[in-house]
Write a structure and sequence with these properties.
- This protein is of the alpha/beta class.
- It has 12 helices and 14 strands.
- About 45% of the residues are buried.
- The chain folds into 2 domains: about 170 residues, Response regulator (Rossmann fold, 3-Layer(aba) Sandwich), CATH 3.40.50.2300; about 140 residues, Rossmann fold (3-Layer(aba) Sandwich).
- Strand 6, helix 6 and strand 7 form a beta-alpha-beta unit.
- The longest helix is centred in the N-terminal third of the chain and has 28 residues.
Length: about 375
């Protein structure tokens, strides 16, 4: 190699080093990329909100250990909504105006998300909610996305199983709150598609401590299965009431209840209960060919063994996926609001904890039916019923 060529190569390497140093210095001068977190850290849903924040912190820390986003650190500023819609909106405005966040993760509850919609849309702030209900994204709102499965996805998972197993006559028992009403409406709306007949329908208040009367009325109509739609302690009450009545037909719960606390609360009555869930709580039972399995086992190890947050539940991965989707969009498109929003909406085949996400202008959730499995409780343990 000629001396002139050697000098040229050395100069090129020197300039590349200078360019890299300049880029790193520029990234440091720009400071961290700040995203906001709206979580129920106190109030009636803190049992979901606190773990959600823990997981959001967990993935932010991992991203930063891996070099951040295009050389910049990611910073999460969290706010407590207290489970109150008006306080959630106030907290959101503070994150936008005071903390200058480029995106928001959360909130935890559907009602809080709905109270924030106008602020989100007016501020043009890309928001990825961690709520179970569909109204924040159905119909589609330009600036709002969500990581938990749509209610219709969970309902269809149950109905497919019922149809395959000859259960065509169904009784439904739903909470009278917005979540229960939404579930009841979807159960009724999709019944015809699967040849399901709703033979009885009853409701209850989430604070009720006995649903024996409603279950007895449903049982008198001769259903082949009972589907209950609620979250929180009420689901365990229904299970115990059905057990005490000696109900022989299967009890299906909704996708919000696969949680160790459900088994603990329902006790022996939980055995035999079936419910749709993310794959997280049965990760070790998945075939090795499942594209999520390695991630799920890694997530569980860090959550349960390294950080000792307790046992995972079906909710545990929602904030992880929300932060990852936003982080990947920022890496691709930067932090300008419209470009970032568009990049989130263009998410394709992202393998997450809660499923494999592919979003579009018509779908701001992006999870298909195969993102869920059905699980059954046997001897106090979760068992993969359907893959």
């Amino acid at each position: 190699m000629s001396p002139k060529r050697v000098v040229g190569i050395l100069l090129a390497c020197f300039f590349l080093i200078l360019l890299g140093m300049a880029n790193r210095a520029m990234a440091e001068d720009e400071g961290p990329i700040v995203i906001g977190g709206l979580f129920d850290l106190t109030g009636p849903a803190k049992h979901i909100g606190l773990p959600t924040k823990n997981v959001a912190d967990m993935i932010v820390e991992r991203i930063n250990k891996q070099g951040g986003i295009n050389g910049r650190k990611l910073e999460l500023v969290s706010a407590d909504t207290e489970g109150d819609p008006s306080k959630a909106n106030i907290a959101l405005k503070r994150l936008i105006t005071k903390d200058k966040v480029v995106s928001v993760i959360g909130p935890t509850r559907t009602g809080c998300a709905m109270a924030c919609i106008n602020t989100i849309e007016e501020a043009r702030i890309p928001t990825v909610a961690c709520v179970g209900g569909d109204p924040p994204v159905k119909p589609v709102k330009k600036w709002v996305f969500k990581t938990p499965q749509m209610t219709a996805t969970a309902v269809e998972k149950i109905y497919v199983y019922c149809t395959k197993n000859g259960m065509k006559k169904i009784g439904i028992l739903t909470a009278s709150d917005s979540f229960g009403q939404e579930g009841g409406a979807v159960l009724i709306d999709l019944a015809g598609k699967y040849g399901i007949e709703i033979v009885a329908q009853e409701s209850f208040d989430v604070k009720d401590v006995d649903m024996t009367v409603q279950i007895s009325k449903i049982a008198a109509k001769g259903p082949q299965a009972l589907i209950c739609w609620t979250i929180g302690p009420a689901g365990a009450v229904v299970a115990k009431n059905a057990y005490s009545l000696g109900i022989k037909f299967p009890l299906f719960q909704c996708h919000g209840l696969p949680d160790p606390s459900y088994i603990k609360s329902a006790g022996e009555a939980a055995n035999g209960n079936i419910m749709p869930s993310t794959k997280l709580i049965v990760a070790d039972q998945l075939p090795d060919t499942d594209p999520q399995k390695a991630l799920l086992l890694d997530f569980i190890d860090e959550y349960e063994n390294v950080r000792k947050y307790g046992k995972v539940n079906t909710h545990s991965g929602y904030a992880w996926d929300a932060v990852q989707i936003v982080a990947q969009a920022i890496e691709k498109a930067g932090t300008e609001s419209e470009k970032l929003r568009s990049a989130i909406e263009s998410t394709k085949n992202y393998v997450g904890v809660s499923g494999i996400y592919t979003m579009s202008p018509e779908d701001h959730c992006g999870l298909a039916l195969d993102s869920m499995v059905l699980v059954k409780i046997e001897n106090g343990q979760w068992k993969l019923l359907e893959y």
